[in-house]
Amino acid sequence: MSNTLIPLEQAASLQGCVLAYGHFTTIHPGHIRYLRHARSLGKALAVALVGDGPPDQPPTYPYSQADRAEALSLLGIADAIVLLQSNELSEAISVLRPVVLVVGTELQAAPQLEYPLELLKAQGGSVQFHAGEMSYASTDLLTRTERDLRQYRRLQFTAACQRQGLSQEGLLASMQAWHETRLIVLGDTIVDQYAACEAIGMSAEAPVVVVRELAKRNFIGAAAVVAAHIRALGAKVDLVSVVGNDNTGDLVQEELQSQGIGNALTRDASRPTTFKKRYMVENQKLFRVSRLEQHNLDGQIEDQLIANLQELAPYAQGIVVSDFVYGVVTPRVLEVVQELAKSHGLMLFGDLQCSSQVGSISRFHNYSLLCPNERELRMALQDKDSGLESLSQQLIATTKCKRLIVKLAAEGFIAYDRGRDGKILSQAFPALSVNPLDVAGAGDSVLAVLATGLASRQAMMPTAALACCMAALAVETMGNTPINIETLRNSLEEMLSV
User: Fold this and answer.
1) What is the pLDDT of residues 393-439, one digit of tens each?
2) Topology (CATH level 3) of domain 4-130
3) What is the mean pLDDT of the chain?
4) Quick check: helix, strand or coil at residue 426?
């Protein structure tokens, strides 16, 4: 009965199964986690799929039940997909008599579930409210070969493009306007140093690995590498940031000049340029040492940074805020960014990194795009239990952002956009790199493509497809190496070639 599509009236043979329920308009990693959990609760899993509704009424969902059933079937998780006419959950419970009904946590207080749950209890069944287990890493390589997994994700990417009506020719053509775009990148600047080492052995004095440093290389990171990616993609860009009055700050200035990035750096003698050194043996990171200050800018430095923003704003199409919460993006600076966006018609793109810092993406309001990862999304809303879909919709409503990317590490990302009718549409894109070399900076590369594409008036979903390819390229090299537009074109052609 694997992946069988069955009308409800013919589903009595499935009695005693585990039952999941929903409309599954867009399949994304949150749904997959939810279904895998449901599958683990019994010998057989059936999914009751909400129908299209009365034929004489406008469709409730952007995709038909047949399309949604096909997408569920391709996952290979459910043993059977039961096709409902509408949303008749009570009838499905009566026919299937499930031992467990699994529904999303967002429906825990839903009035429409009161009668179905009473019926389920009367039949001796139980209910579980579950959003799918949170995961920030992939276990796929334990069950598939690298080659098979690479092909599977490529097929996922192709299917996502087809579902959004995206062709290779259209995506390539959409990149042609990027060179006409100008952006400002605002945020913290970091210098990342990678030290390649040779492992000598264990210390006799303590249980410590002893290494010998062989070579080292510096990369500009954080807001600076976002600017570097944007410039390499063909757009013009200015970096508005703060560095220390030190040799590391000089290095940043030299790199900006060599890459053709507009330099609007402000020097602050009260703080060193943020510097992070990673020690590596055979491409394996051992540990990181950071040199940084996290206090907010003082008034005079803040004034200089704001003056730089005001000078550049009339010539740009958008401002990219890359906030690593080291004190550069102050509340006053954010207020000025909002004022400049209104007075000059600028798009705003926001990303906030808070893996080891304290911050919240919810401080950005009315932005054209926000780009949190799942951990940052949950931290912003103080919610570790709800499903991804519910959380994403909540963040969109709270911040009033027009578009949203939720980054899911090894599971790729989910892109959200507003349709012309105001409804939120979504599409999941896979992580195309199966065995990444260095994931640091992947989110910065995604932000760069999204800001460049959207600022050139490209639509959200084609821009997200290009960002998906960009992320795969970024994690295949060690360190923050800017990805140029020709490399991105070649990657896209390879992914969508027959």
Assistant:
1) 999 999 999 999 999 988 899 999 998 888 888 999 999 988 888 88
2) Rossmann fold (3.40.50)
3) 90
4) strand
pLDDT tens for residues 351-381? Answer: 998 866 678 999 999 999 999 999 999 999 9
User: Regarding predicted confidence, which is higher, 403 or 135?
Assistant: 403
Backbone angles phi, psi at 493, to 5 degrees: -60, -35
Q: Dump the DSSP string for 271-337.
A: SPPEEEEEEEETTEEEEEEEE---PPPPHHHHHHHHHHHHHHGGG-SEEEEEE-SSSSS-HHHHHHH
Whether this prediction's pTM lies above 0.85 is answered by no
CATH architecture of the domain with residue range 151-189+221-271+296-496: 3-Layer(aba) Sandwich (3.40)
- Phi, psi for 215 (deg, rounded to 5): -160, 160
Structural contact between residues 125 and 101, judged by C-beta atoms closer than 8 angstroms: yes
Calpha distance 197→414 (Å, rounded): 37
Q: Which two tokens stand for residue 287?
A: 């540990």
Domain boundaries, the chain: 4-130, 151-189+221-271+296-496
